[in-house]
Amino acid sequence: MTLGFDLNTWQPTPEQAADFAESLDQGFGYGPDLRTHLAQVLSPRRSVILATLLMAVEDENLTELPADMPAVLAARGLRMPSSDEWEHACGAGTDTLFRWGNDCPLDRDPYEDRTGPHQQLSGFGLRIAYDTYRTELTSDVTAAHGGDGGESVCGGYGCMLAWLPLATANRNPSMAEFVYGPDGEDLSEDFSTRPVLTL
Predict the structure, then answer these.
(1) In 3-state terms, what secondary structure has residue 3?
(2) In terms of pTM, does the model score above 0.90?
(3) Which Gene3D superfamilies match (predicted)?
(4) Domain total for the chain?
């Protein structure tokens, strides 16, 4: 199957580009444009082979440090998903920026929007990438999915950057670095994972 986001075929809307330009003016984002920013945070288009599995409909808060969660889940006969498995579960075969399409409401941030497209279930019926304050961890310590702990919303990064943590292929490497670094150790209860049962 194919995962990732194809930046070569995607064009930002004028509104998305303008919103990102405002964020850059305020010192947020990886410049000089939205395409460059996305290249830093999204996984590239690629072909993968995934195991057959069942994945939890809802994410679960971590009960231990991220490094200890594989053993906690293994005791239940479960495991953390890989980043590729998470991305497939979120996008359900779509090739758009978000699981619902390439657009997002730029007149509000996702945290304030309780009826927006991110509140709908994924194509596989999962409640996933629905709250930027939620950050889901996988077995990949270089990635964090489905949110940024509220950093972009609380930090006032701008609407486009506030919605991007919910993008299907967003790997959020800076959040992963924080989570698995010394500063993230005391915040494990603020992160979640989505248990998987391999069939």
Answers:
(1) strand
(2) yes
(3) paralog of FGE (formylglycine-generating enzyme) (3.90.1580.10)
(4) 1
Percent helix, strand, coil in the chain, to 5, is: 35, 15, 55
Tally of CB atoms within 10 A around 142 = 12
Q: How do strand 53-55 and strand 196-198 relate by DSSP bridges?
A: antiparallel
Q: Where are the alpha helices (DSSP H) in the chain?
A: 14-25, 34-41, 69-74, 83-91, 151-154, 159-163, 173-179
Look at strands 192-193 and 53-55 and give their pairing: unpaired
Question: ∠ CA(125), CA(193), CA(131), 5° rounding?
Answer: 65
- Residue 57: closest CA among 124, 155, 141: 124
What backbone torsions phi and psi does residue 23 show, to the nearest 5 degrees? -65, -45
Q: Examine residue 32 and say whether the peptide bond preceding it is cis (omega within 30 degrees of 0).
A: yes
- List pLDDT tens digits, range 116-131: 999 999 999 999 999 9
